[in-house]
Amino acid sequence: MEILRADVVVVGLGAFGSAALWRLAQRGLDVVGVERHGVGHEHGSSHGETRLFRVACMEHPGLAAVATKSLELWTELGRDTGETLVRQTGCLNVGAPDSQTVQGPLKAGVPVDLLTHEQLVARQPQYAGLRPDDVAVWDPGAGICYPERNVRAHVKAAQRLGARIYLEEVVEVDGATVRTQGTEFRAGKVVVAAGAGLSGLVGGLPLVHRPTPLNWFAPKEEFTLPRFPAFIWDRPEGGLWGHGSDEGYAVKIGVHPETMDIEGVVAQAFPGLDPKPVKVVPCHVTDSPDGQFLLGGIDENVIIAGGDSGHGFKHAAGIGELLAQMATGENPYCAVDFLDPARFRGSSSNG
Ligand SMILES: Cc1cc2nc3c(=O)[nH]c(=O)nc-3n(C[C@H](O)[C@H](O)[C@H](O)COP(=O)(O)OP(=O)(O)OC[C@H]3O[C@@H](n4cnc5c(N)ncnc54)[C@H](O)[C@@H]3O)c2cc1C
């Protein structure tokens, strides 16, 4: 078996791992990335053309700083590569005034606008079945980002900075040692960002795999970006999220819980659309018990990033920067105690 050494080995080059690789290489470290598929593949959680990008994150007030860091880093990287990595066309958080969907973004500490029911109806005639008390929070810094494109941009940037990449290699992690079939990597630190494979690699994590399809609907004039901007809509019968079509991609809509009849929901909520999806692609969410990510050291050598809970892509670059700071002992650019894996110490994995 070949033995190779590195300052840091990153396992998994999806959203979080590819960003960590880039931010570590940016610091001049000798860094290796190992991935069991190719770069920008469609077998994990980071594929499907687009993701919602939100700054006023309803999930936790501490996440606005991470999304803001992603925006800063992606804007800079996009300037260097000539690519658009985030497109800011805003996002509507729609729901009852006391719902988390409305209250969460108001607590995020970033500029937002609260729209009355009447303002929402006037602005978005595409919506049907709003309840009389539904209002919306407009997050102007929000929009969409691009999973495959951004992951590839991270990896290319890392390679330009000297990172070594090993693809189509399944690894096992044993403290600071990472093994593939033919190679043993001995590292100062190991970052494990293996998505749905995280529990299998480090064990003892209370993560649950949730198959979550991506659905696209035929484009229509009034459902294009920016006229039909990104949205999250909290309804008693279940949630909806999505965004308008543009530049070769169709209207995207998802439902939560995923077991809901999407054709029935779309027919009711957006009667101007043909409710039959034109494309459905499987994807995977890895849920944590509290819906927040797991980010931090689990022992002196191993740092993990995972438990994306369905809202992680927008934070990828910001999380990559935090992982690099954790691996090098720098102070984190924002407080992330609420993401510390230690909060689940003693919990066990159930898949
Ligand atoms: C349908 C859907 C919609 C979503 N919508 C949004 C959204 O609108 N906005 C948003 O911000 N987020 C959204 N998300 C969540 C977002 O996509 C995820 O948070 C993010 O992609 C998670 O990235 P990750 O790096 O944890 O996992 P992944 O991207 O899956 O990366 C893990 C990588 O590790 C590799 N790996 C695993 N095991 C091993 C091993 N043993 N050896 C080597 N490599 C290994 C895998 O191949 C994979 O490449 C959505 C997710 C889904 C499924």
Automatic annotation (TrEMBL):
Name of the protein described by the UniProt record: Sarcosine oxidase
Key words of the record: FAD, Flavoprotein, Oxidoreductase
UniProt keyword Secreted present: no
PANTHER family, per database record: FAD DEPENDENT OXIDOREDUCTASE DOMAIN-CONTAINING PROTEIN (PTHR10961:SF7), PEROXISOMAL SARCOSINE OXIDASE (PTHR10961)
EC number: 1.5.3.1
Keyword DNA-binding: no
Superkingdom, taxonomy of origin: Bacteria
UniProt GO molecular function: sarcosine oxidase activity
Pfam families on file: DAO (PF01266)
Gene3D superfamilies cross-referenced by the UniProt entry: D-Amino Acid Oxidase, subunit A, domain 2, FAD/NAD(P)-binding domain
Domain FAD dependent oxidoreductase, residue spans: 7-326
Coiled coil location: none
UniProt cofactor(s): FAD
